Amino acid sequence: MASNIGSVVTLVSIGVICWVIAFVIALAVGADAKVIWTCLFGAGLGLTGIRYSIRRNKRSGI
């Protein structure tokens, strides 16, 4: 089952945007450091996933 790279990148991008929104809200309400770091790592891993998906698509033609 071949997936479209555009849909994969779109889905992961939406996830990254949600993590960034959660980070901003966590800062606004003064959340614990653990929550703030979770949001940062979630967004960072999402960005890594976007990069990985694009590189994998170039190599294997998903």
TrEMBL record:
| Entries under InterPro entries matching the protein | DUF2530
Transmembrane recorded as keyword = yes
In terms of Pfam families, this protein maps to: DUF2530
Kindly list the residue ranges recorded as spanning the membrane.
7-29, 35-54
Per UniProt, the keywords (alphabetical) are: Membrane, Transmembrane, Transmembrane helix
Official protein name in the record: DUF2530 domain-containing protein
